[in-house]
Design brief:
InterPro entries: EcKL, Kinase-like_dom_sf. This is Aminoglycoside phosphotransferase domain-containing protein. The protein is mainly α and about 325 residues long. It has one domain: Aminoglycoside 3'-phosphotransferase, Chain: A, domain 2 (Alpha-Beta Complex), CATH 3.90.1200. It contains 13 helices and seven strands. The strands form three sheets. It has a three-stranded antiparallel β-sheet. A two-stranded antiparallel sheet has the order 1-2. Strand 5 and strand 6 form a beta hairpin. The protein starts with a helix and ends with a helix.
Length: about 325
């Protein structure tokens, strides 16, 4: 139910800004959130409903569940995401205290104080981050048949595990380059034109704050043709960033930078962006390893083997966590 509250807030408060920024998104005609007092007066305040315009006349091709997008749709999806992410910098508030906590924490907070239940997006966008997947994480830690059990869950001298370190870094803290993210980017949640040159996303139940690369991690693994990710016909066990993947990332990053508000947001350095991307892939792989793999599993695991074995990435991650704790 919290996720439906989030979606109503998104369409009431965020979608109008997107439309004015040239980012196509459904518009809300009416919702029970915006008619709360009338709902109480008519005794239907237990009802939650949202009336949106139909996207299909302009975007007639519906994405399918666990389907692979065409090349045109992939580049259009990256462009939409880059514009969506960059546009939020102009509207993202500095105070993050009103955003919703992870679901169980939010439920506990509201139970203890009914007045603190508020309408907003999730503090941490998505539904796969570690705070929402503790039970699966515990099971992975004891799954001695999984190679990822030790990689993600092992702890030395009481220090955080690699999965915990990656998740800690990705927690929103009001840092530069954090944006609103969609939280559930996949082929099933978009419509496109017949040519595939333009797309529009929907289903904003998990919209919140995060790094845009977290949206890309799921898109790449689950909806992008493998040939756009790598030139390898046979995926090696460990795979570094190759030219195909870099082309897609550059396409997104260039649009993101070209659409950022001038003077307010520092340049998102390419090398920093790539470190964020690597961390998002590690976090996404942890979720899949504990919940179940689907999509380009072989590619994802090969990329994450390379990343987690890279001392440069590990050292960078630890430095970032030290900076955050100071």
């Amino acid at each position: 139910m919290f996720s439906y509250e989030v979606e109503q807030y998104f369409y009431d408060e965020v979608a109008p800004h997107l439309a004015s920024s040239g980012v196509p998104v459904a518009q809300c005609f009416a919702s029970t959130r915006s008619m709360k007092q009338k709902a109480i007066d008519h005794g239907i305040d237990h009802v939650m409903a949202t009336l949106l315009n139909d996207l299909r006349p302009e975007f007639p091709v519906a994405g399918e569940k666990r389907a692979i997008l065409s090349a045109n749709q992939v580049y259009a999806a990256l462009a939409w995401l880059a514009k969506f992410h960059s546009s939020s910098w102009a509207h993202l508030p500095q105070d993050l205290s009103d955003f919703l906590q992870p679901p169980l924490e939010e439920a506990k907070k509201r139970k203890e104080d009914a007045k603190c239940g508020g309408s907003n997006l999730w503090l941490n966008g998505g539904y796969t981050y570690l705070a929402t997947r503790q039970e699966e994480y515990r099971l992975l830690a004891h799954d001695h048949f999984s190679e990822w059990s030790d990689v993600f869950c092992s702890s030395v001298d009481g220090l955080p595990s690699l999965a915990e370190s990656a998740a800690d870094f990705l927690i929103p803290r009001g840092r530069p380059f954090e944006t609103y993210i969609h939280g559930d980017v996949k082929s099933e949640n978009l419509f496109s034109t017949e040519s595939g040159d333009d797309v529009v996303f929907f289903d904003f139940q998990y919209a919140g704050i995060g790094l845009g690369v977290c949206d890309l991690a799921k898109l790449f693994t689950c909806s992008v043709p493998l040939g756009l990710l790598t030139n390898h016909k046979s995926i090696p066990s460990s795979l570094k960033l190759d030219e195909n993947e870099k082309i897609l990332l550059k396409h997104y990053w260039s649009i993101l930078m070209n659409n950022r508000p001038q003077g307010d947001i520092p340049v998102y350095e390419w090398d920093v962006f790539l470190r964020h991307w690597e961390t998002a892939l590690v976090d996404w792989c942890r979720f899949q390893a504990s919940w179940g793999f689907w999509g380009h599993t072989e590619w994802l695991e090969a990329r994450v083997r390379f990343i987690t074995q890279d001392e440069g990435w590990r050292d960078w991650l630890q430095r970032q966590l030290q900076i955050s704790s100071n």
